[in-house]
User: Fold these one by one.
Assistant:
Number 1:
Amino acid sequence: MKKFTLVLVAMFGMAMAASAQYTGHKFFDNWSIGVEGGVSTNLCDWDTPNGGVAGINFTKGVTPVLSLEFQLQAGFNDDANWNWSVRSKNVVDNATFMANTKINLMNWFGGYKGTPRTFEIQARTGFGYTRFFWPGGDFVETKSGNDLNRCTAKFGFDFDFNLGKQKAWTISLRPAVILKMTRDNDPARFNMGVATICDENGSPVGSYAHNGLAQITAGVTYHFKTSNGTHHFAEVKPVEVTKVVEKVVEKPVEKVVEKVVEKVVTKNTSNVTIEFAQNKATLTNTAKAKLNSIDKNTTVAIDGYASPEGNKAYNLKLSQRRCDAVKAYLVDRGVKVADVNAHGADGQESQRIVYVTIK
């Protein structure tokens, strides 16, 4: 029993896990209603149907694999199935309420594709309560009140055909076995189990012979519309996340990102600021005009910088080239250059400039 319970728990867990990628999980989603009718017979005398059955089903889909079904069935002329010696004169001989668990084998093993298949097989098992309706007379005098109530169990399969584009309707063929789980007061009758031994006429010769029924019904089911707009679980479309991956290629150039940030530098009126284009060490006409304002025979110091984009080594070289360009121009004009310092990128706010400080 412990192993059986563990198997059921594992099956339930797997069925629940199958719902993770589907919508339609609200309480009022995936409900359906169905009606069915058919025949039943004692397992010992299975080739002679001797009772009719009709029922109504309410089903709640928990996942694409697991469903819970609540079933109410009525038996007609059904007393002989249970080997009663006195037949009932009522139209309805008994009523059975059952709570069943259904496992969609196709979705379990084949996966759910976002919509039901045209043909599906479901395994069904459950327990219930049967009430027999007997009139007065000899039967009441020979049977106790306990004979009117029985606990029952059902095992079977549903062969489902889902119809239409939306699969809102299902036609089913449902074979099943029903077992009576409680004992009769009459020791000559059965306790638990299914038919064991019958003679050549089909009469039971064992104490368990009439404890089980074979039943086959056909039914039609309507699946109510769910909150996702369909009649079943709908597949969740994965959100496509496009990642913008920046490919970093090491190049001996400054990155084309210009920051308009003014460097805070303590300057005096003797400083001349020369600006350069991005990744350039060439003097512009504006830069030359500023350098021309420095008198000949003047002694200056030069400090060169680069913007922080690019690697450190390259920025240092670039600032040196800018210093060399300014020095060459000034020396050519007769200005004496006493000191030259290339600083590279001096902090995140550094700019593409050269400071000429007049001594």
Note: The chain is about 15% helix and 35% strand.
Number 2:
Amino acid sequence: MLRLAGVRELAPRHDGFLLDQWGVLHDGGAALPGALDCLARLREAGKRVVILSNSGRSGAANGTAMRRFGIEPHLYDAVVTAGDDARQALLERSDPFHRALGRRALVIARDEEVSLAADFGLTAVHDPASADLVLVLSLDAGRRTVSDYEALLAAARARDLPMVCANPDVAIVRPGAVVEAPGAIARRYEAMGGKVRYHGKPDAGIYARALAVLARSGVAAPRAVALGDSIVHDVGGARNAGLACALVAAGIHREALGVAFGELPEPRRWAEFAAEAGLEPDYLVGAFVW
């Protein structure tokens, strides 16, 4: 594994960059220091950039949201999301799991996103007794926690409802904190004995979508690198897809690694962390900076 001072050391090695959002480009409140400059420099160097996110919302919706942080469309080629992957699977129903699902969904999401169930070909219901499945899209961090859904999950489990998780992240970076994410709800449901189908990283399928975008620009998989802040989702996902990968140390693992923004962990602490995770990236960088 190579310890890097910045992304500029990756540029000569790779032509395509698959970038995570939260903890890499922004924290949900603002672009992270140096991120806009780094994106601009990658584009100036002729690199292709796909933002690969575990967001339960569409790529288009994420693109609109990122403009609030100054992440404009000219800085990347496409946004590929777990939400889009789940949406296509539920609309097409080409595999046995999704084909067997009903159409009435108990939706776990921010209040304003419950209506998005219609985009998945589903009807949102509010009572587990009338639902055919559970659809997890988002978690209103700061207002709700996984424990707030305990009774709802227990009622769904009592009916053996299958769950589709369109955002498998268990934690995300928020301004000044690392908070629970929708995947933590799905993990809790699994712990109850519930059946869950995850969409997004670390599943290799979402990488195939992103790599197809790069391929249209003439970038083959061996010249691509995935960069994110989750050892499980970003590093594990890249490994599942056979891709080179870089981990941003000062993301969701910053406390575990004992680092502040832009810092690299002390080698012994990193070795202990990587050994426990059972995964190691090709590159380690303090932040998404040039």
Note: The first helix runs from residue 35 to 44.
